[in-house]
Design goal:
Two copies of one chain form a homodimer. Chain A has 252 residues and is mainly alpha-helical. Chain A is built from eleven helices and three strands. Chain A binds a DNA duplex (30 and 30 nucleotides) through helix 2 and helix 3.
Amino acid sequence: MAGRADSSKTAESSDKVSVICRALRRAIIEQALEPGAKLPEDALGERFGVSRTIARHALGQLAAEGLVELRRNRIAVVATPSWQEARDAFDIRIELERLVVRQLAGKLTKAQIAELNAHVDAEDRARDGTDAVSIRLATEFHILLAHMTNSPILVRYVSEVAYRCCLTLSLYSRPHSSECAINEHRAIIAALAKGDVDKVMALMHSHLDSVATRALVAPSPQRGRDLLDILAPYADEATGEKVVKLTKAARR
Amino acid sequence: MAGRADSSKTAESSDKVSVICRALRRAIIEQALEPGAKLPEDALGERFGVSRTIARHALGQLAAEGLVELRRNRIAVVATPSWQEARDAFDIRIELERLVVRQLAGKLTKAQIAELNAHVDAEDRARDGTDAVSIRLATEFHILLAHMTNSPILVRYVSEVAYRCCLTLSLYSRPHSSECAINEHRAIIAALAKGDVDKVMALMHSHLDSVATRALVAPSPQRGRDLLDILAPYADEATGEKVVKLTKAARR
DNA sequence: GTAGCTCAAACTGCATGCAATTCGAGCGCC
DNA sequence: GGCGCTCGAATTGCATGCAGTTTGAGCTAC
């Protein structure tokens, strides 16, 4: 483990761009910006005190991470992953995080274990707060683990895919229940400290899998990608007043 | 498998930027641009008939993929992964590609199997050509597999990490031997067609692992990240004429 | 001949400006 | 009242320009 460089930032070019990226990333995963929210370059630039050029660059980076959708000549929007993409993201995440804990099991210092425990404590305290903050903290626990591998590539991929999953959670799982997740985090820390590779990998697997299935109970066409898809089943009953109202409300 | 969108391009915003990205990506993995090669924005812009703004944006994307290193106020250079980063990339790649074949085993259409075989045939024909082309084709085989999962996220990650590994190969393994790889590819196709999940996962694992170990035989300080490191052992013998010549030659 | 210094050229960081495209409010038609 | 159309405002795509930083070639001193 010794001898590994600590080059924390993988890309994140210049300061101004990365500041905007971080801010937007956080806003997105805390649901301050919902999926589908518009992100005009002008507005971003003005808000962060930079030119459009920089805001544009930041949007490009976030698009590369899958948090933002960029279509030519159109306003950038916060990504709205489909149900299938969400499931794929979780599948990938499971494999990546199993790799993380495999590398980490039995190799954590006491200081690192303390840091992990402190983080989970913070998660615990945040249970009273908003769901958004709980979700963010839970996600950051996983990213913290990834950091401890000292593998910049792994950190990047785990972060990215975790953020994507975060986005999904905010889309598909309305009543988020993070209580159980906290206990699962504690169990993972314990198994890591004990150095039981197989057990910690299994724990991580089931943890993530249960988060995924809690969220993605069913293909859930509600809240799906496209309004038209949502309304398709109603189309048969034609001109129902409710349907019309819905389109108007949603269009705004 | 049905019902999955075919949205091939994940980010790759506007045309001009993505054209440059693709060109550079290919140049890098074919070693036309060696690790460490300078990539000035002006020159790129001029070469591709666009402004610096666009070239810059493209470099940003490639940096996000890990193919390019971007340091503030400095000329962008083709990334030079450390040995440890290379090993990490392969570890991640193994997990991701095991996931690919797990999803694919027994689910490929005849047309897809034919496509895969055709690709391997192309690899076979390319054995006479340059190493660079062989490496590229071998890499593209894996990306082709990823595409068949119809999972854009998986495609993106596999592509990225495969390109990174390509870069590594060009750094650390001078005499590339791709002959065996071709047979391994054929074996994987066969196992996929047969639908033997466990076998194909094991095959993919050993295939990638052997590629990695063939390349990364030892931490190999030669050809490493920094000239100074390479020369350190020679420093003791002081003022040897040879050493001086080396520095001059490399500096150009 | 070597080491250190200086300064101009090269390059990046960023903002601004213009053309092309999209968006959406308002208007006429059914 | 609802639907489609049209045109101005909003927005993106991209190039260019200016300021600050790095680079390295040439010069000087030893």
